[in-house]
Design a protein that fits this description.
Elements (H helix, E strand, L loop, with lengths): L3 H15 L8 H12 L9 H14 L6 H10 L11 H15 L4 H13 L10 H11 L6 H14 L5 H17 L7 H6 L1 H15 L2
Length: 214
């Protein structure tokens, strides 16, 4: 069970690290709003547990980021709007960040960077030299390198989120996603990700593709 109070404290630390002026609303109100979003009933994988995991991975990778706290704020917003049957989740999440962060006292430059990072999670394809983007994308994709039991739980949760999709259509669509990932020259962009996660992630993806019979 994820410790929501600990998550709230992590939000406040990241926000205060980038906030320029303390004369703004209570930072906890934003944490509570985001945690309500992350706890919505339609979520099975994109839950507070996923948020906590991404933040944990950012902690591991923070040395590679130019602005680790902006990356942490982007993690909070990257799936803040999530409806499995919509393709606009990342854009709507980025717009939420663009509204909420200035109100919370974050400068436009940092707000823009957070929103840019959220939009980057559509395809997880940061440009070379995009240190913040590499850290966020690697942290978000780190589940692909999970141990077999955790990877199986992840795939089961994804299937539950897409329960409205018929089995055959899901199998075809999921197989296409897996092939697209396996065709990439590299899943991870940070040195740590390439060293510690790449091989295991590729093994997991290939094993899932084989199980799908596709």
């Amino acid at each position: 069970m994820t410790d929501l109070d600990a998550l709230r404290s992590r939000w406040v630390r990241a926000l205060l690290a980038v906030r320029e002026d303390e004369c703004f609303p209570d930072p906890y109100r934003y944490a509570d709003d985001l945690l309500r979003r992350w706890s919505e009933p339609q979520r099975r994988y994109h839950t507070v547990e996923h948020l906590a995991a991404v933040l944990d991975h950012i902690d591991v990778l923070e040395e590679y980021a130019d602005d680790p706290d902006a990356v942490r704020l982007a993690a909070w917003f990257h799936d803040a709007v999530y409806l499995p049957d919509r393709s606009t989740n990342e854009e709507r999440s980025a717009r939420l960040a663009e509204r909420a962060l200035p109100e919370a006292g974050v400068a436009q430059g940092t707000t823009g960077e957070v929103a840019r990072l959220v939009r980057l999670t559509v395809g997880h394809a940061p440009e070379p030299g995009d240190a913040n983007g590499a850290v966020l994308c690697d942290a978000d994709l780190a589940i692909l390198a999970a141990p077999p039991h955790a990877y199986a739980a992840y795939t089961a949760a994804v299937r539950q989120e897409y329960g409205f999709v018929p089995d055959e259509a899901f199998r075809v669509g999921r197989a296409a996603v897996l092939r697209q990932l396996l065709d990439l020259p590299g899943l991870f962009r940070t040195p740590y990700g390439r060293r510690e996660w790449e091989a295991t992630a590729r093994w997991n993806l290939a094993a899932e593709l084989e199980l799908l019979g596709a």
